[in-house]
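Entry for the shared binder. Reason: the reviewer on the internal report wants the predicted structure included alongside the sequence.
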Amino acid sequence: MLNFEKYSNFEKRAYIENFNKDISNNYCRKASVILFRHGHRTPFNYGRGGLAGSLGAEFYSKLNMDCFNNKQEKLYQNFDLVSYGSLQKKEEADFYLQFNTKLKQDGILTRLGSEQLYSLGLSLGDRYQKEVDQIVGDDANQLLRAVSTRTERTIESLKGVLAGLFNSKQIQPHLKIFVFDETCERNWLLIPYEKYPELLDGLCKSHKHDFKREQIPGYEKWSSDFMDRTGAESEELDLSMIRDFVTSFKTFDMMIGSDHTVFNDNDLSALNQMTMYSVSSETLLVDKGVGKAAGEFFWHLLEILDSNDRILTFLSAHDTTINFVKLALGGVEYQWPDFGANIEFELYEENVNKKLFIVVLYNLNPVVLMDISRDSSPLIPYDDFVQYVKENIFN
């Protein structure tokens, strides 16, 4: 059996007595990196027959297109899109995304998704009010960096966060949103399958029915029941795909007052947990797999924190990004990260001796990284954090 427990060794600290007061009085926040998942979207068109095809056909035959209306009200407007690929070449060329102009329904941010990320932006604006107040005029892009993967939903989610962040500003600064060029070889917000093809082998093995029966808690009982209910074959039980659809059917209220009978009330909670075990298995099956999946991200994270260039960096990415970062920190809860799930890395300097510390937050709650913290405190000496990354994540 895989040792999943090794990677679930952190403690949430939603309420830490005097912690925030101590931070405010004795430390100065130098830089913050905010990683988040995009907002609510429609399910993907998986482009195949069988169970996936029938679920997709049913969902999109019932989809009310009003779910895409009025998104722009919650999205930042004063921006330019710039290629992150050219950024790595130390130049900033204009960058234009050429999306399909035909009506596209699958994998698209909904109005609910824009509202979720706008709300996250409001919360981030409260926490980083001092920083936001400094980001004005021509210096804005020197103090803030906004980066997104190359999908509509992540770009629009980033615009939602920025709209909430600067909601109180009468004049919104003109910002650059850096987007990974599809030709960029170092898209460190995604799992590097091209660089490490063995990770793809691990993914394929972790999706096999017999493997899931042996390794994933609860799968054997759930899969037997699900196949009895639906007539699905074992090779059709793609947990990520099924979870995608059951989430969408529930969110869009398609399970109530309809002829839909595939899912029951227990499927979503079971799939949230089993899918997390499944994606964790992908990297745990590979020698040094966690480091291979997360190494590029943490290399860039340390580079950003060490540079002292910017006070706020926003990274708009995917559930897989949240998953491999948590796995690398030994902080997996084995529950799928919700839309808008976020991880913050905050660098502090002690006022008296100028020593550096880092605090990691999940969904804006400080967490104790039990594998790193010396005294069960969310406040970790930065040197200890860097040493942990070098010894446990870098290969």
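Summary line for the report: The chain has one domain: 4-192+288-392.
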